Amino acid sequence: MRNTIIFGVAMTDELKPLATQKTIATFTLTASHKNTQDLLLSDGKTDPIDVAPGTQYYFERVNLADILVKSKAGEMVFVVGHSAE
Question: What pLDDT does residue 6 have?
């Protein structure tokens, strides 16, 4: 059975995971269109990429705890999808 996953993450100035425990999911990650700067997105193994405000990325069967995000305090990123296990 799949469970719906919907949440927002408030950014900090340090890379932090989207989840604190293993959560395999298929989801869309969206940088809030109200953000005032790009956020950084990383898997912790490669260089982070810049994600402009309003940009969406689709992930299939990815552990949310492996995705790291960073921006200035108060910026937001949203995750909408479903569990994949």
Answer: 97
> What's the rounded Cα separation, in Å, for the pair 4 and 29?
14
pLDDT tens digits for 38-73? 999 999 899 999 999 999 999 999 999 999 999 999
Contact between 53 and 36 (Cβ < 8 Å): yes
What is the extent of the structural domain holding 36? 4-83
Count CB-CB contacts under 10 A for residue 7: 12
Please give the tally of structural domains in the chain.
1
Composition of the chain by helix, strand, coil, percent to 5:
5, 50, 45
What CATH number did the domain enclosing 13 receive?
2.60.120.10
Is the pTM value of this prediction over 0.85?
yes
* CA atoms within 13 Å, Cβ hemisphere of 23: 21
